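Students often ask why we bother encoding 3D structure as a string. The short answer is that it lets us treat folding as translation between two languages. Here is a chain of 198 residues written in the first language.
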Amino acid sequence: MDAILPFTGIIASIWIVLGIYIASRFYPNYSHSKQFCSELGAFGSPTQKLSPAINNYPLGALFVLFGYYLIISHQSHLPTAVIGAMVIIHGVCTWVCGFFPMDADAYTKSPSRSCKIHTWSGLMMLVSFIIAPLIVTFSSFYPMALRYLSALCIFGCFYFSYKLAKALELKTVPGLHQRLSYGFQIFWLFIYSLFVAA
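And here it is in the second language, the structure alphabet:
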């Protein structure tokens, strides 16, 4: 098990792409550009049970394991240990998002309690993977290339989060911008995991 821990971040980065794709194959007429990833596990969706089973729950475990590895392997370096804590928070919130589905209507004006919990957990996921690369960006412990890449990923995440907000307002392609926003965070995790595992 200890030999696998350094690679759990890499595995999670690949798993999330494959998991969303596989779940979408069981959702008739699912649109990756118009629909959120979470709609795969929304109330009443054809993949309500399947999506969290192959995405949220195993992904949450991989995030938590990678965060745990960062903490135990860098106990003497506080910034990296804090990054580990952020990855664990991301993992726990991934579980919460799977356990509490969003509403079937992404544009509902009166979201259910489950949807509110899902939304707040999603926000914590977003924040945790902004704090983590932000720490790398301003830490001289890491090579300059990784620091610049982390800053770029933060910028990309913010830019496409802004585009997501606009797409939601206009009801156009929020799914596309959500994937690009979160994609920058997952890309950061992948590169950071490669650096740690090397």
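Translate back mentally: The mean pLDDT is 97. Keep this in mind for the problem set.
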